[in-house]
Amino acid sequence: MDALSGFDLTTFSIMGFTIMEIISLGSQAAMVLGGVVPFIPQYIDIWKSRNADGFSLFVCLALLIANILRIMFWFGKHYELPLLAQSIIMIITMLVLVQLCVDVKNRTEIISSKQRKFTDFEREYFWKWTDFLSYVEFIALFSLVIGLLTYIFLNSVIYVELLGFMAVFTEAMLGAPQFLRNYQKKSTLGMSRKMVGFWTCGDCFKTVYFILREAPAQFWICGMLQVSIDISIFLQVFFYRHNNVPPIDRTAKSAIS
């Protein structure tokens, strides 16, 4: 009992690292890689089913813009490096997911539709292009414009704070396109429930992390908004549960009845 009473968790070490240091490193690793994990089930679902109709590509757009803005925000107000690393990895992940969706849609078209490209500058087909290069071109142009503005106004506190707010607010709204798509279809068919589950767990962890690490207020306020949208999507899964039947299955049931 006396030995236990003298035990200090903060000084106990494993391979030269204290328990608190290991917990800190673990939480930082979770922040860096945790954002990618939710999209693994969705990627697998699309790849296996060869159907990307249930997933909104505007989710990828929201995350690409949010993380580009967050990287630019770092130059004006240095925050923790794990958050910067998370943004870089997330951008790569979203581009990979976009490429898969575009490839699947092109391969599964029975009648080839007209090719739509970013350089056509057709507003109604924004982010609905038929070639992956168009998505890369838009992201490159957006990064160039924001990078130039950041270079010019880097010393402006108002601009830097606005940049940070827009970054976390855009990320907080990433679930909104999926929520809207589900609402329009009155179904969550094709959307990975595991993805939304990981979103919710990750966003809860992230919000608590922001609060404990005393990150800028924009981060944790928008984190709470993000959790609210995640929960709303889960409610859609419940409300539209009777509509989540593949079209083929519905036809078969109608024939039987």
From TrEMBL:
Q: Which GO terms describe its biological process?
A: phospholipid translocation; retrograde transport, endosome to Golgi
Please name one Pfam family that this protein belongs to. PQ-loop
- Any Gene Ontology CC annotation: trans-Golgi network
Keywords in UniProt for this one? Membrane, Repeat, Transmembrane, Transmembrane helix
Q: How does it sit in the membrane?
A: Multi-pass membrane protein
Where does the record place it?
Answer: Membrane
Sorted alphabetically, which InterPro entries does this protein's record hold?
PQ-loop_rpt, SLC66/Scramblase_ANY1
What is the protein's major site of localization? Answer: membrane
Where do the TM regions start and end?
12-40, 52-75, 81-102, 132-152, 158-176
Q: Does the keyword tRNA-binding apply?
A: no
Tell me the PANTHER family matching this sequence: PQ-LOOP REPEAT-CONTAINING PROTEIN 1 (PTHR14856:SF9), PQ-LOOP REPEAT-CONTAINING PROTEIN 1-LIKE PROTEIN (PTHR14856)
Q: What is this protein called?
A: Solute carrier family 66 member 2
Provenance organism: Biomphalaria glabrata
